[in-house]
Amino acid sequence: MEQTVSGLGGAVLYLLLHIVVVSACVLRILLRKHRQPESRMAWIVVVLTLPYVGVIAYLLLGETNIGRARIERLQAALSQLVPPGDAVGVIGAEQLAQCPERFEPLFKVGQSISGYPPVGGNRARLMKDTDAAIDAMVADIDAAMQHVHLVFYIWLNDRNGNKMAAALMRAAKRGVTCRAMVDDLGSRDLVRSPLWAMMTAAGVKTARALEIGNPFLRIFKGRVDLRNHRKILVIDNAITYCGSQNCADAAFLPKAKYGPWVDTVMRFEGPVVWQNQHLFAGDWMANSHDDLSGIFHERRLAGQPGFTAQVIATGPTARNSAMPEMFESLMFAARRELFITTPYYVPNGAIQAALCAAANRGVATSVIFPAHNDDFAVAAASRSYYESLLRAGVRIFEYQPGLLHAKTITVDGEVALIGSANLDRRSFDLNYENNILFQDRALTMELRARQAVFQEHARPITLEEVCAWSVGRQIWNNVLAIVSPVL
C-alpha cells in the first residue's frame, strides 16, 4: 500500500513538473518579442505535443539569441569604425546618387536597415558563370597592391577553392595584407584541412565566424545555427564582388547529385566598395583581435560617373524583419514586371501576399525555383504556396539542369537586388546576409537577360498540374509549411 502511495506521489510530482516546465516554455514563446504569430503557434504545437523534447528543441533552436558576449564584441567593433553613413571613401558620393523619384523609397528602406546611404559613381559587370567569377577574383587578387579581404559561408577544398587559396598565398608572399574569414559551420571541412593551416603559415590572416567550439557548451552561449551566410571580396578599397556564389566548383561535391550549382555574381567598382569594406570590417573585428578602423581614413575626390548603389546587410543583430521588408518593398515598387530567382522559398505571410498582390494588380510576376532542391523540407514547403501564387497570376518555373542558387530580383528593368539572401525564414531571421541594391537600366537589363536564360532551362508549372497533385503530396507539403517556422 505504501509503495502504491509512493508511486502515485511520484507520478503526481512528475505531472506537476511537466506542467510547470511546459507552461513556462509556452509563456516564454508568447512573450518573446518580434515573433510572427504563425511561428508562435508552430512552436507551441511542438512544445505541447513533444513533452520535454519540444522544450529542449525550443531552448536550442527557438530564439535568435546570438549570445551576449558576441553582441558585445560586435558592438565594440562597430564603435571603433566610422559610422556606416561615413563609409563612403569618395567625397561627394552621396550627392552623385541619382535615381527616379519613385525608386528613392527603396534606398530609404535600405539605409534604415544597415545605415549605408545610396551612393553614385558605381560601375559593375555580371560574371558569366561560376568559373569565370573565380577566375576574375583570382586575377584581381593577383593585381592587389594593399589588401585583400574576403568572407565566404562555404569554402570547399576543391579546384576553385584551391585556386582562391593559392592566389591569397601569392599575394601574402609579395606583401599584400590578406584576411580570409569563413563561417565555422559552412566551411568546417576547410578549417580542419591542411590547406587552412597552409594559408595561415603563408601569412594569410585567417578567422572563423561564429565559432561553434564544443557544441554541448556552445548552446549556453547562444543559438548554434545562427550563421554568417555572407559572400564578400574586397580588394584595395577599389573592387568588390557580391552575389550568391560560395568559394567552390559548380559541381559542389558535397551535394553533387543536385549539381551543377548555378549562381550569379557581380564585380563592382566605386563608392559602394567602401560599404562592403565596412561590412567586412565589422564582421572581422567581431571575430578576431585585428583592428581595421584605420582603413577608412583614406578619402579621395569623386571619380568616374556611374549608377546609384547601396549595400544592404541584415542578420540576427539587425532590426527585426529587415530582409523581408526590403523584399516586400521591391515587390510593391514593381509597376510592369517583377522577376525573381531564389533557391529557397519559405515566406512569411507578408512576402506571399506581396507577390500575389503584384500579380493581381497586373504586374508580370515570375519566379524561378530549382526543380530539385537540396533541402527536401524547403522544397515541399515551397510547393505548398504554389496554388495561391498561380491563382493570383504569378508565373512559376522550375529550373531543370542543376540547382539554381542565384538570388536575384529585377524590377521594371531598372532596379535590381543581388546578394546572398534567400526568400526564406533562415535568411529573414537567422543568417547574416549581404546584398547590393542598384538602379541602372543597362545593368538591370543584363541581369534580366540572365534570368531569361534561366527561364529557358526551366519548366513552367501550371495550376492544373498543382491541383492534380495527390492528396498525400498535398498533405506532405502543407504539413512542412506549417512547421516551417520551426525548421
Describe the structure.
- With 487 residues, this protein is of the alpha/beta class.
- 45% of the residues lie in helices and 21% in strands.
- The chain has 20 helices and 22 strands.
- The protein has a 16-stranded mixed β-sheet that branches. A two-stranded parallel ribbon has the order 1-11. Strands 9-17 form a two-stranded parallel sheet.
- Helix 1 runs antiparallel to helix 2, helix 7 (130-142) runs parallel beside helix 8 (159-173) and helix 15 (376-383) crosses helix 20.
- The chain is globular and about 75 Å long.
- The protein starts with a helix and ends in a 5-residue tail after the last helix.
Features:
487 residues; alpha/beta
How much helical structure, as a percent, in the residues? 40-55%
Silhouette = globular
Secondary structural class: alpha/beta
Whole-Å distance between the termini? 48 Å
User: How many β-strand stretches?
Assistant: 22
Q: What is the tally of helical segments?
A: 20
Radius of gyration: 24 Å
Average pLDDT, rounded to a whole number, is: 90
Note the main sheet: 16 strands, mixed
How big a fraction of the residues is strand? 15-25%
Quick gist of this model?
It is built from 20 helices and 22 strands.
Topology (elements, then pairings):
Elements: H1 2-31, H2 37-49, H3 53-61, H4 68-80, E1 90-91, H5 93-96, H6 104-114, E2 119-126, H7 130-142, E3 147-152, H8 159-173, E4 177-183, H9 188-191, H10 194-201, E5 205-209, H11 215-218, E6 227-228, E7 232-235, E8 239-243, E9 261-262, E10 265-269, H12 272-287, E11 300-301, E12 307-314, H13 322-333, E13 337-341, E14 345-346, H14 349-360, E15 364-370, H15 376-383, H16 386-392, E16 395-399, E17 403-404, E18 408-411, E19 415-419, E20 423-424, H17 425-430, E21 431-439, H18 441-456, E22 458-461, H19 463-467, H20 471-482
Parallel strand pairs: 1-11, 3-4, 4-5, 6-21, 9-17, 13-15, 14-20, 15-16
Antiparallel strand pairs: 2-10, 2-12, 3-7, 7-8, 8-10, 12-21, 13-18, 16-22, 18-19, 19-21
